Amino acid sequence: MNFELSEEQALMRESFARFLDEESSTARVRAAMPLGFDAKMWRQFAELGALSLRVPEAAGGLGLSLLDAALLMEEAGRTLICGPLAETLVAARLLALLGAQDKLLSRVLAGEAVVGIALHDIEQQPLQWIAGGAVAEAVIARRADEVVLVAVGPEDRRAEENLASTPLAEIALSRLSATSLGRGAEAVARFTQAVEEWKLLIGAGLAGIGREALRLAAAYASQRKQFGQFIGQFQAISHPLADLLCEIDGGKFLVWRAIRNIADGAPEAGAAVSIAAWWNAEAAARAVAQALHTFGGYGLTTEYDIFLYNLRAKAWPLVWGDPQRLLEEAGRRLYGGETTTLPEAGACPIEFDLGDDARAITAEINAFFEQNVTPEMREKFHYSWEGYNPELHRKLAEAKLLFPGLPKEMGGRGLAPYAKIAAMDAFEHQGYNTPAANVAQMVALIIHRFGSEELKREVLTKLMSGEAIASLGYSEPGSGSDVFAAQCKATREADGSWRIDGTKMFTSGANLASYVLMLCRTNPDVPKHQGLTMFIVPLKAPGVTIQPVYTFQDERTNITFYDGVRVPDSWRLGEIDGGVRTMSASLELEHGGGFSKVMRAMLRAAEQLCGELRRDGRPLIEHVSAQCRLARATAHLWVADVLAFRAQWVIAEKKPNHAYGPMAKLFSSEKFLSDARDLLDLTAPHSLSKRKGPAGFLNQCYRHAQATTIYGGTSEVHRSMIAERALGLPRTRA
């Protein structure tokens, strides 16, 4: 897996960014209005080689990759470039590939001439809006099975006022003189590739616009005060920006993912292009609107630059038409058998593959389940603690598959980070979601690091062998997500032992476990996070009462009561009042998180059910509306995947981590819930049933999804973390 650009790409990006910061400043953007074309900047940009980026070296270009062009477009979007860059990149490449108009190509690459592209067949749509058409002297167009170069005179390219003050013009292309550039399948394929490339480049540019708009909003919210506080401290300001950062970053990575798909020849590559273009059009529009809203009334004035981002983000993709049609196109490509010709990707260092070790452990886990799991056992698999199977748990321990991520000196497999991720994915694929094993692993690691020899001998060995499991005693009835507000007391006795009194809520698995890892208040006279200590408490000890609490998700959790429960000091973990440090050890087991695995299973169930159900005499999956909704769920799944991949990658490679784990968890849980609602609607009334099969699974997913936005920290907690750590907004929690 790799999210790092090559050294050459990083240098190229930095070089273009420096130029654009200076020559495409918002002052220059304003000066170029209302035409929206900065001829001087355009020529200077061309001198840097920007316009020749995608032209093959044999034709006088740089011959760089599709990812290079996307990186350039991100910077162009960030700086609101005054010129039709995406259109010029694909038009110049098309001229070179069709092997004609060398003189014109040279002038285009020098920034002396602008050539646009008509995105639709002019035989079917003779009058078209052309990006850059107000300054173009020619337009490349498709006319049935022919690609032509349409000459555009000054009288044919009348500039007119438009939404974002870009050099847009509506041109009656079929009435103008045209020169053939090629005819037949090969020429049409080249043109189709150019249009598909344009979709990706516009998507990348929109991601750049959206990211910069959010940065401007966060900066403003960090210095603007209202009611004596920075407005960025108000969750009504910071939380929507956090949500949109997930969507904007996800959109950028959808472009990267589509390029990787093209490079790999993946069957979903065509749909990935459509989804990346649609997603970024939608996400950028929402991001700039929320950013402008952050400025309040000032955002409506022309004194602040945010309005420029608002208008460009909305205008750029609309030259193609209604972005909703891109979602329909994705639906046809995913579910209707539609195919297209895609551009050449070139070198792409971005990689989402986990490697050979990951494939090996996946195969081993799959083989284990095939040999050891009976149909009766599989029937009882469940995403919660209800799926815990003691026999299978012990067998996994014997095969050293129970804790594959723990180091070998503890008795684990000691897998490398990406193989460890693959192992977790393999368990999910088998349907054996194992919170019992995950919690036991966390507790085992903490005991290994902070426990006494007695704890290691009495408890750790049992956890590692699969003989026992443990529960977590963090939450309390009055503290919710604020675990540091714990009031469950541990009082030191005269003999050095500890007496524990209090209540813990959501002690899931306590009815099955032998031990609970408990966070207790040991000092009420210091700040709340300093007066906590961790203990291992036997759940069979006198004074422990376990009371079931049932959820509507077919699972049981517990409320546990501790009345004078005695534990020896040797069962304390870490220093007295040092519980926060002890708890932090569990963070090493973080893997980027998210719920993309169950989102994928839910989508597959919805696809199956849409294929079985009939509406108006034909399968539901053949209806445009159903294809669109399934395509939207696919987009959410892919964004959840790439955000989780990034979180996993920065942990594995020890890169700076700007709340990437919370972003993966927040986005996936919220979209899991919204998609569960929508797919339940789509397949109604059959989805009401709990009967075995896809309908019952969708039904379960809807109930399961509710908890994902709460367990492990509510979405509100994660939004605050993202706002603070990724956007630099002031702290919103006391």
Protein model, in words:
- Among the domains are: 120 residues, Butyryl-CoA Dehydrogenase, subunit A, domain 2; 130 residues, Butyryl-CoA Dehydrogenase, subunit A, domain 3 (Up-down Bundle).
- Helix content is 48%, strand content 13%.
- The chain contains 23 helices and 18 strands.
- The strands form 6 sheets. It has a 4-stranded mixed sheet.
- Helix 12 runs parallel beside helix 15.
- The longest helix has 37 residues.
- The chain is elongated and about 95 Å long.
Topology:
Blueprint: H1 7-23, H2 26-31, H3 39-47, H4 66-78, H5 85-97, H6 102-109, E1 115-117, E2 127-131, E3 138-143, E4 146-151, E5 168-172, E6 178-183, H7 185-221, E7 225-226, E8 229-230, H8 235-264, H9 269-294, H10 306-315, H11 324-335, H12 356-372, H13 375-379, H14 390-398, H15 417-429, H16 435-450, H17 453-465, E9 470-473, E10 489-492, E11 498-505, E12 515-521, E13 532-538, E14 544-551, E15 555-567, E16 572-573, H18 579-584, H19 596-612, E17 614-615, E18 618-619, H20 624-652, H21 660-682, H22 694-708, H23 715-725
Parallel strand pairs: 1-3, 9-12
Antiparallel strand pairs: 2-5, 3-4, 4-6, 7-8, 10-11, 11-15, 12-13, 13-16, 14-15, 17-18
Shape: elongated
Find the CATH superfamily of the domain at 596-725: Butyryl-CoA Dehydrogenase, subunit A, domain 3
Total count of helical runs of at least 4 residues: 23
Please tell me how large the radius of gyration is. Answer: 29 Å
**Lateral arrangement of strands in the main beta sheet:** 1-3-4-6
Q: Mean of the pLDDT scores? A: 94
- CATH domain topology of the domain at 596-725: Butyryl-CoA Dehydrogenase, subunit A, domain 3
Task: Look at the structure and give the CATH class of the domain at 596-725.
Answer: Mainly Alpha
Instruction: Compute the number of strand runs.
Output: 18
Which spans have pLDDT < 50 for at least 5 consecutive residues? none
Q: Which structural class best describes the helix and strand composition? A: alpha+beta
Largest sheet: 4 strands, mixed
Portion in beta strands? 5-15%
Cofactor: FAD
Keywords: FAD, Flavoprotein
Family: Belongs to the acyl-CoA dehydrogenase family.
Protein name: Acyl-CoA dehydrogenase
